[in-house]
UniProtKB/TrEMBL annotation:
It is a single-pass type I membrane protein. InterPro entries: Lamp2-like_luminal, Lysosome-assoc_membr_glycop. Residues 218-250 form the Lysosome-associated membrane glycoprotein 2-like luminal domain. GO terms for cellular component: autophagosome membrane; late endosome membrane; lysosomal membrane; plasma membrane. Keywords: Disulfide bond, Endosome, Glycoprotein, Lysosome, Membrane, Signal, Transmembrane, Transmembrane helix. Disulfide bonds join C153-C189. Belongs to the LAMP family. Residues 1-26 form the signal peptide. PANTHER family: LYSOSOME-ASSOCIATED MEMBRANE GLYCOPROTEIN, LYSOSOME-ASSOCIATED MEMBRANE GLYCOPROTEIN 2. GO terms for biological process: autophagosome maturation; cellular response to starvation; protein targeting to lysosome involved in chaperone-mediated autophagy. The keyword Phosphoprotein does not apply. It is found in: Endosome membrane; Lysosome membrane. This is Lysosomal associated membrane protein 2.
Length: 272
């Protein structure tokens, strides 16, 4: 059984950006999975969004940002059994699905693999896509957490693979919950440990075995922030800043994380 809740979250950069442009779209996903004895086996609450690059028929690249998960469903999410660990399956729209599964060891449990699929044959989300079909990216995370601890990471984590960048923040998750009681003992991600202030730092990279993607050059193209059935930002960017990566990094580091987050949407290459 799946119990879930969606709450609009004020305060994230994207919300700010969309507020400015007249639409709100950031949701915190929350779910409790329960086993046959109606005990909670897995608790998760998190925020995420995605930036997808695709090639158009006119050989340009377009970017789509998926951030409105308001109508997310959790079909397929299971507590698992002795053979298979638990997994969270999230569908949003008819175009996207997201799966994370967990494994257990003697004293730890791990977030195993995050996979994300999108269907470019949906021509409202991916207008003029050159290649139509379902694409899936797998991000092995293999991140271990002590059993009976709840993992928390308020900081931003980024996963990059092929044409997809995934952003995660405000993450709380505990799999293999014992006796149906979600732990109060938190296991923090490194980025949360080092940030002494409450200001979340941007761009933690979750340890992963993925190949580092080569630094992208600034790309000219259209960028849109998709809020589900509409678009709250659409801009064509043809601007190249004459600033070195290093300088840019220093400049960025002095900015607040919210603004940084906002920047990513305006200048997606600025974060690389
Ligand atoms: C999930 O369970 C926790 C702990 O029992 C509770 O605080 C929370 O409200 C529940 N959330 C949902 C969406 O049912
Ligand atoms: C999820 O399951 C419910 C009930 O079984 C069904 O009505 C709904 O269509 C399913 N949604 C998806 C996206 O599969
Ligand atoms: C997790 O899912 C991936 C593919 O989605 C699969 O290859 C892997 O075996 C799964 N791991 C577990 C522990 O179920
Ligand atoms: C989108 O796809 C549908 C069905 O494949 C087609 O009928 C429609 O003309 C397409 N729309 C655009 C704008 O290409
Ligand atoms: C779960 O319950 C068992 C038996 O009541 C107890 O021995 C164990 O310590 C409990 N585990 C946790 C994590 O509370
Ligand atoms: C969410 O679902 C409701 C009811 O099915 C629908 O009216 C609404 O347009 C959907 N919103 C989004 C953003 O897909
Ligand atoms: C999505 O569309 C539905 C129906 O047209 C509308 O009621 C809803 O407000 C829209 N949601 C957003 C976020 O624009
Ligand atoms: C960028 O700036 C450097 C020095 O600040 C200058 O040498 C170079 O010509 C500039 N490049 C462009 C494309 O304007």
């Amino acid at each position: 059984m799946v119990f879930f809740r969606l709450s609009p979250v004020p305060g994230s950069g994207l919300v700010l950006l969309c507020l400015v442009l007249g639409a709100v779209s950031s949701y915190s996903l929350e779910l409790n999975l329960t086993n046959s004895e109606k005990n909670i086996c897995l608790y998760a609450k998190w925020q995420m969004n995605f930036r997808i690059r695709y090639e158009t028929t006119s050989k340009n690249y377009k970017f789509v940002t998926i951030s409105d998960l308001a109508n997310a469903t959790y079909n397929g999410s299971i507590c698992g059994d002795d053979q298979n660990g638990p997994k969270i399956v999230v569908q949003f729209g008819s175009v996207f699905s997201w799966v994370v599964n967990f494994t257990k060891d003697v004293s730890t449990y791990s977030i195993d693999i995050i996979s994300f699929s999108y269907d470019t044959s949906d021509n409202t989300t991916f207008p003029d896509a050159k290649e139509k079909g379902i694409f899936t990216v797998y991000n092995p995370v293999a991140f271990g957490i002590p059993l009976n601890d709840i993992f928390r990471c308020s900081s931003m984590s980024t996963l990059e693979k092929n044409d997809v960048v995934q952003y995660y923040w405000d993450v709380h998750v505990q799999a293999f919950v014992q006796n149906g009681t979600v732990s109060t003992k938190e296991f923090l991600c490194d980025k949360d440990k080092t940030s002494t202030t409450a200001v979340p730092t941007v761009h933690t990279t979750v340890p992963s075995t993925t190949m580092p993607t080569p630094k992208e050059k600034p790309e000219v193209g259209s960028y849109s922030v998709n809020n589900g059935n509409g678009t709250c930002l659409l801009a064509t960017m043809g601007l190249q800043l004459n600033i070195t990566q290093e300088k840019l990094k220093n400049v960025l580091l002095t900015l607040t994380s919210t603004f940084l987050f906002l920047l990513q949407w305006v200048w997606p290459w600025a974060s690389l």
